[in-house]
Amino acid sequence: MIITPQQAFAVYQQSECLFPPDAIAAALDRMAQEITVALDDSNPLVLCVMTGAIITTGHLLTRLDFPLQLDYLHATRYGAQTRGGDIRWIARPTSPLTDRTVLVVDDILDEGHTLAAILDYCREQGAAAVQLAALVEKRHQRKAPGLSADYIGLEVDDRYVFGFGMDYKGYLRNLPGIHAVREHHSD
Hints:
4 helices
């Protein structure tokens, strides 16, 4: 369903702010410390999952003080929709993954079917090790079998969240905090 900017703004105005910018910054600091301990001497290739993880990846990279390389990929089940469908590859990484330590960074780990396909792709391309960092993880029991993140910044209840890279029907990725849709706006 396509919405207007005014409709998106109304959802934002009525939303609940779950994590203000300072809470997100603290979570990113902690994630960066954990990643540094694990990967600082491994020459990792960081893969940003577009489009949602662009903000998380940018903020996380400035906290990683060791040599790394950056690339991106874009695979989606959502587009501007709120319910998942088949996985569609829009862009694959251009960097070779063979024998590399790969850190996949995404904005949210929800059910994880897209992320599971991305991690499988990295392994199929010959990555020596594949790790996953997600800024937000939803608490529920619908995760893709065997999928878990190595680094999680924040946890949320099973609600529709947006901001800091996550969208509401194509809008509101640019918010500095993470918000939840009020119950009467559920999809």
